[in-house]
Design brief:
single chain; alpha/beta; five-stranded mixed sheet; binds 6-O-phosphono-alpha-D-glucopyranose; GPI; glycolysis; isomerase; carbohydrate derivative binding; EC 5.3.1.9
Length: about 425
């Protein structure tokens, strides 16, 4: 499998966007600063703290077992939330799109919304469904709740699949205990792999292997990016360069990192990036707010704000040169569209938007993939994982924890136990 990745940073430079921009010399002068950040990441890796890098060396044969089992099933349900599911969603959509017409059909339970589980239960036959329950901590309430509801539903209705249909992927907690007691097939989430960095561990690879994603090429793409990013030369290291660009722009008040893919298959990738960037860097008063918009659709709902609203954004365009399918636009009416393909239209729209926001002085970078396949997606995702790790070091924060979320989790438990109750004194009620 082939494909190319290209990172373009013309439009953050002073000669393109004026005073908002940075200069090549300015980047070069920060060589020591970026190399310290890079060295710190390497040190953490050598200390065994960065499992997302170690994951690249793991043997993928262990996923053959679950892939073999999945052949017995027509549907796959993935139960998880946050880092335990966003990576699989991003990769599956990145390869297969959103139609869910492929075999096996996949359903995601990533919320405690009762209507969602109802719809899922209506859409699948549970005796023909392989069910992944994924939680690094093994204690996440939304994930456990969805598992309990499905398990009880199966028991009550005496639904017995031909082969055991639960697979647990966890690092411990209650899920680990359940998996042991029930005798589920189980994959381990290593302690040093953070949830949002876990797509290339069992968390992503086990379900993706069952969804007929070529995980070997996915990891191959990631390895390629890792090799490329070994260099200290920032102009040859896209993850380090993009980390520095975002860091510099953040310092200049660009508090929003806006990502705009011009292909629907990368929309979920944007959602994955949203967690990675937000949870890793949103600490101690730092952090850019990640926003995802889909080109060209959201040009017609958001672009006015991006162009003419607060000057608080750095944009990333994601573009592919080749689409899996294409259509010629044919009509007897007089139209500029005649003799063009749909792909040409969307590619032109990306360039038009890029030019107009550049003229406005809004900093923007662009990643172009020759095509979107496992190999290029592996490069893209791993590049962002490294970039996030580098950016954490530039900001002098720990990119690998999420203390504020843990506190909110504790309070949700307290509400469930009744020790916190909803009180409201100031409200407007309409009947
Ligand atoms: O994998 P789990 O332990 O179930 O955690 C799922 C998610 O839970 C929390 O919300 C954390 O903030 C996320 O980083 C994590 O990905």
């Amino acid at each position: 499998m082939k494909g190319t990745y290209k990172f373009n940073f013309d439009n953050v430079l002073k000669d393109k966007i004026g005073e908002n921009g940075i200069s090549i010399d300015g980047i070069d002068e920060l060589r020591d600063f970026t190399n310290i950040a890079k060295a710190n990441v390497s040190k953490k890796y050598e200390n065994g703290e960065l499992g997302f890098i170690e994951a690249l060396d793991k043997d993928l044969d262990e996923y053959e077992k679950v892939k073999e089992l999945s052949k017995e099933f027509e549907y796959v349900i993935i139960i998880g939330i946050g880092g335990s599911i966003l990576g699989s969603k991003a990769v599956h959509q990145g390869i297969y799109g959103s139609s869910n017409t492929y075999h096996p059909k996949v359903f995601y339970l990533d919320n405690s919304d009762p209507e969602k589980i109802y719809e899922t239960l209506k859409a699948v036959k549970l005796e023909k469904t392989l069910i992944f329950v994924i939680s690094k901590s093994g204690n996440t309430v939304e994930t456990l709740a969805n598992y309990f509801v499905i398990k009880k539903h199966m028991d009550k209705n005496n639904i017995i699949p031909a082969k055991p249909n639960f697979v647990a992927i966890t690092g411990g907690g209650l899920l680990q205990k359940i998996a042991e007691k029930e005798g589920y097939m189980c994959y381990k989430v290593p302690e040093n792999v953070g949830g949002r960095f876990s797509v290339l561990s069992a968390v992503g690879l086990a379900p993706l292997a069952c969804l007929n994603v070529d995980i070997h090429n996915l990891v191959k793409g990631a390895r390629k990016m890792n090799d490329i990013c070994h260099t200290d030369n920032i102009f040859r290291n896209p993850a380090l360069l993009n980390a520095l660009i975002h860091y510099k722009m953040d310092n200049r008040g660009k508090k929003i990192s806006l990502m705009m893919p011009y292909i629907g298959r990368l929309h979920q990738f944007g959602m994955w990036y949203r967690q990675l960037w937000a949870e890793s860097l949103g600490k101690d008063g730092n952090g850019q707010t990640p926003v995802i918009a889909l080109g060209a659709t959201d040009q017609h709902s958001q672009l006015q704000l991006y162009m003419d609203g607060p000057e608080d954004k750095i944009m990333t365009f994601l573009k592919v040169n080749k689409f899996k399918q294409d259509y010629s636009i044919e009509t007897d009416y007089d139209s500029d569209l005649i003799e063009h393909k749909l792909s040409e239209l969307i590619i032109s729209e990306q360039l038009g938007t890029e030019q107009s926001i550049t003229e406005k002085g809004i900093p923007n970078v662009k990643i172009t993939l020759s095509e979107l396949n496992e190999y290029t997606l592996g490069m893209l995702m791993y590049g962002y994982e490294l970039q996030t790790a580098y950016c954490g070091e530039l900001l002098c924060i720990n990119a690998f924890n999420q203390p504020a979320v843990e506190h909110a989790k504790k309070l949700s438990h307290a509400v469930l136990k009744g020790s916190i109750v909803e009180k409201s004194y100031n409200e407007i009620k309409i009947e």
